Amino acid sequence: MEPNVRFWITERQSFIQRFLQWTELLDPTNLVLSIEKIEKSRQLLLTNEDASRGDLEDKRIQEAWKRSLSTVHPDSSRLIPGPFRPAALLPFTAPTLFLSMLPVKNLKSMILPQASFYTYSTVFNIVNGNASYDRRAYESLLLGAGVIVSSTFLGLFPRLLQVRLSMSSILSRNVIPVFILAQLSGMNVIASRSLEPVRGIEVMDREGNVIGYSRKAGTKLQAISRLTVSPHDRCLVWNVLPSTQDKWREAGLALLTPKHTRLSHHSFLLGAVKDTATSRVVLFGTSAFIPEVFAYFFKRTQFFLQNPWSLWTLKLSCTILVMGLMVPVSFSVFPQIGRIQCSELEKEIQSATEETELFYNRGV
C-alpha cells in the first residue's frame, strides 16, 4: 500500500492538526532532499506498515513521514519535481504576486509578472492534481499551454483597460485587480485539472487498493494481490498495487480500469476540483488584498511622506508574511484524501464493492 495514501486515510485529522502537519511539510529544506534520503525514508515506511504519525518515540519514523508526504505523489508514487513540491509554492509565487499588483505604468511591464505567475500556477496544479487517470504528455502540454495563455490574457485585460482609460480610482486600481486575480486563480485550477471530470479518477477502499483488470493478466496471476469475482461474473476483478501496475506496464500489458471502478459522476468530480479551486481563491485573494489594505493606510502616515520608497518594502514583506500563513491554511481546509459514501455513487460502483465508504485523492 502506498505509504502516503495509508497516512491520509488512517490519520483522520482536524483542521488544526492538518495545519500543524502542513507547517512541517512546507519546510524549505524539503526542496533539496536527496533522492537517496527519500528512498531510505520510503523503505522505512514500507517495512513498518503499522507506523503512524503518532509514533513520537521513533524520530526516524517522524522524519520519514515528513520526507515522504512532502516529496512523493500519492497516486503515482513518483517524486514530485523540486520546483513544484508544495514547499515551493510560497517562494515561487510570492514575488510574482507582488509584481502583479504593482501600479501599471505600461502594459509591457505587466506581461512578464502575469505570465510567470500563471505559468507556475498552472504547472503546479497539473503536477499536484489527481494522477490516477490516463493522460499522455502532449495532452498535459497542450492543456497547460492553453490555460496559461487564457489566464494571462484575462489577467492583463483589466490592466489594459486601466491604462487605456486612465482610470485611477481606488476601485479600479486596487479592488478590481485583487478580485480578478483571486477568481482567475480558482479558474486556473478548474481549467488545468479539467481532464479529471472527463476521464474519471480511481477510487480506493480503506486498504488503499485500487480496483482494476487486464484481459491479458490471466497468465500473470502471481502478480495479483487479491483476486475476486465480479458480482455479475462478467470479468475478473482484483486490487492491484501501484508497484504491480508498473511491472505490468513494463511487460507491455494493457491496464484497463472497468467502467464501474472509475468515477464518472461529473458533479462529484467537479466538486473535488472545486474544493482545491476554492482554497486557491482564498490563498491568493487574501495574499493580494491584505497588503493593499496596509498600503492604503500606510500612505497616510508621515513616515511614508518622508520615505516614499518604503511602500514597496512594506507591500513585499506583507505579501510574503500573509502568504506564509495562508499557504498552510489553504492546504488544510480540505483533507488530501477525500471520502465519499458508496451509496452516493452510481449503481455500477455500488454493486462492485461491499465497502460503504470509498476514498480518492483530492490533490493539493
Task: Describe the protein.
The protein is mainly alpha-helical and 364 residues long. The protein has two domains: 3-82, no CATH class; 88-200 and 264-336, no CATH class. The chain has 14 helices and seven strands. The protein has a three-stranded antiparallel sheet. Strands 1-5 form a two-stranded antiparallel ribbon. 34% of the residues are buried. Residues 212-245 and 247-264 have low confidence and may be disordered.
What percent of the residues sit in helical stretches (DSSP H or I)? 55-70%
H-E string: HHHHHHHHHEEEEHEHHHEHE
* Structure summary, number of beta strands: 7
Radius of gyration: 23 Å
Total individual domains: 2
Low-pLDDT parts are: 212-245, 247-264
Distance N to C terminus = 20 Å
The profile of the biggest β sheet is: 3 strands, antiparallel
Strand content: 5-15%
Provide the spatial order of strands within the biggest beta sheet: 2-4-3
Any idea what the shape is?
globular
Number of helices: 14
Output mean pLDDT.
80
- Overall SS class: mainly alpha
